[in-house]
Please model this.
Amino acid sequence: MKHARIAFAVTAAALVLAGCSDADSPAPSASASTATSSISSGSGSSGSGSSGSGSTDSAPTPEPAPADASDKTSPASAGAKLTVTDIRTGRHENFDRVVYEMGGTGTPGWRVGYVDRAVQDGSGNDVAVAGGAILQVLIDGSAYPFDSGVEPYSGPNPVLAQPGGSVVEVNGSGVFEGVTQSFVGVAEPNTPFAVYALTNPTRLVVDVAR
Model:
């Protein structure tokens, strides 16, 4: 009986220790949004969750701000047929973000750079864009909805960003000869920016430094 009580006590102690070990082990980090985590794999972490280990007061490392204002280009995949289905903006610590979500097939290409005027392809009409500078976004590999098979973005237009940031608004998502044309109103001229293509879902992301 004495041996049985000792064995029971040892077993109970082991269970208690095991429970403490589970409670003290690091908790999984809260995952960031798909866009943020995909970009951060190449340019620093931006997750907001706590790992459960170390100091709980430590702040996550913010993604760095874009470093230059030069034109950015990249080719689309062969046979890409993509249509913009959503446009949204967001604010991060070091930059404002513009996201063009797309449906269809393939990978988008882009030609993004500052222009003196916003001129609509095809018609030649001037487009009114708020802000101190205009960033033209050309998305190659685009298609009309009847070719891509997806519903296009239907508004609002322009998309207004949060006041006080580097991005003022996003205007337009029209397609002309296989290219989506859009304009980003930027608060100050020659503000550095970066461009990325992301997947699941397909997105073109433009980050503008703050």
